[in-house]
Specification:
Layout: H1 3-47, H2 58-127
Helix pairs in contact: 1-2
Length: about 130
């Protein structure tokens, strides 16, 4: 196995790990956005009930609702950024995989050529 082939094989593995990292982060940001949205909805629903302290402390409820919606938006923006990073990582992974496959085919072709050449040389020495 050639050194270049080994390096490309390792690079493919690293690129796949990087892609998986971005996919995991994307899922985490989406989950956090859903959680923040649910928190905002819950606060809004509680604010409107008779047993709520919302009438006594409306600024606290409004601030918490605003904070939850802000977290939701930040998490959605982070998720959108991760999508572009996933696309970049996918493209890089595909490019490195192609280079690795090309190198592996070239390596196999060279090995096969050497084996044939050895057989020819052996045949010549046994005939001569």
């Amino acid at each position: 196995m050639t050194a270049r082939k080994d390096r490309l094989k390792k690079l493919v593995k690293v690129q796949e790990q990087l892609k998986a990292l971005h996919e995991t982060r994307h899922a985490g940001f989406l989950a956090a956005a859903v959680k923040a949205e649910a928190e905002a909805k819950e606060l809004i629903e509680r604010f409107d009930t008779d047993s709520s302290l919302g009438s006594l402390f409306p600024e606290i409820y409004h601030r918490r609702i605003t904070d939850a919606l802000g977290r939701q938006e930040r998490n959605l923006e982070n998720a959108r950024q991760e999508v572009s990073l996933i696309a970049t990582a996918t493209a890089r992974t595909n490019m490195v995989e192609r280079a690795y496959k090309d190198e592996r085919r070239r390596d196999e072709r060279e090995r096969s050529d050497r084996e044939r050449l050895d057989l020819i040389m052996q045949k010549r020495t046994s005939d001569g």
